[in-house]
Structure formats: structure tokens, C-alpha cells
Amino acid sequence: MTREIIAILRGVQPHEAIAITDALMDAGITRIEVPLNSPDPFDSIARMVDHAGDAAMIGAGTVLDVDAVTRLAGIGAGMVVSPDANPEVIEATKAHGMASYPGVFTATECFSALRHGADGLKFFPAFKLGLDGFKALSAVLPKTAATYAVGGVGPADFADWHAAGITGFGLGSNLYKPGYDAARVGKLAAEAVAAYDSAFS
């Protein structure tokens, strides 16, 4: 089962990146992003890509410019996640063959992102949009649009968001905070996967 969960490792450091990647993969989470405002993020991503190979999609979050996209492509990253919907970033991501997950909040941003080639829409911060806001937006979006709730949404909310039609989730502090070791991340990831499987089965 391919779970639509993206683990967000904000603050992860290169020396711990591989162990945490293994913990996430062992639990069943195979999409992992390292936000670029983490310590030495390109180093962490390169290590994770080399280690995981095709077993996981490794990429970056908080990607704001084309230069970062180009650098990510050079180290073999598989996806680019952003807090905004910059058309240039989306187009550059797709030109390099990577998956694009831009941040959106309004109908204008959603449709702009899709027109420029986004693979999925990252609704951020999802807890501010809420279920009612998401339902209103999803009513006008293409049925094929992949949608992800990110920010203030955790495993306890999976069932409600699934019922509203969400595709998946981005999980940050629910899975990792600086100082969490691989064992703790693995435990939290297993709990998130169980909640996802229960909601989406």
C-alpha cells in the first residue's frame, strides 16, 4: 500500500538523516522532505537519496527559487515542496523530472499551480483552512487533483479529512522534532501509518 504521507523533517541534521529515513521507511512512509531551512539540508538530502535509492521519494521542502530546484536535481532529489505556488519553481521542478507539491490556500493559487504542472496541492496551513474551507475549494477543483493537508493536521484528524476528500497529508512535528532519535520517529511513524490505514481502508 502506497500511503499518501509526506514526512517533513524540519531541523534534521546530516548525521542522523539515514537512521531516521530507515525508521520512516520501516514504518511504511516512503515520501520524505527535508526543509531547506534545516542545517545543511542538501547534505542530508544527498545522503538520504544515496541510501534509499528507489525505495523512497526524497526531496526538499521550503523551496523558494529555481536555483534550489536545479541544485536538488543535481543530487537526485525526487520531489520539491514549497510554501507558495511560484510558477517558475513548479515549471523548473517538472523540467527536471521531479514531483511538484506547491503550497496553496485559495482557488486562484490552486488553479495556477495545476496549470503550471503541479503534481499535488499542499494546503497550508491546513488547520486555518479547515474542513469547511477545503470542502468548498475541492468542489471546484478537478476530481483528479491530488490534495494534501499540511500544518496543524495530525493522525487524529485523518478520518475527518479523508471523509472530506483529501488525498494525503504532510506531517512535521507529529513525526519529527529536533532531538527526536530514530526509535522515537519510528514509533510515531507507525502510529501515523496505523491511523492512515484505518481512515483510508
Automatic annotation (TrEMBL):
InterPro entries: Aldlse_KDPG_KHG, Aldolase_TIM, KDPG/KHG_AS_2. It is an enzyme of class 4 (lyase). CDD domains: KDPG_aldolase. Its EC number is 4.1.2.21. SUPFAM superfamilies: Aldolase. GO terms for molecular function: 2-dehydro-3-deoxy-6-phosphogalactonate aldolase activity. The keyword Lyase applies. It comes from the Bacteria. Pathway: Carbohydrate acid metabolism. It holds the Pfam family Aldolase. Keywords: Carbohydrate metabolism, Lyase. Belongs to the KHG/KDPG aldolase family. Homotrimer. This is 2-dehydro-3-deoxy-6-phosphogalactonate aldolase.
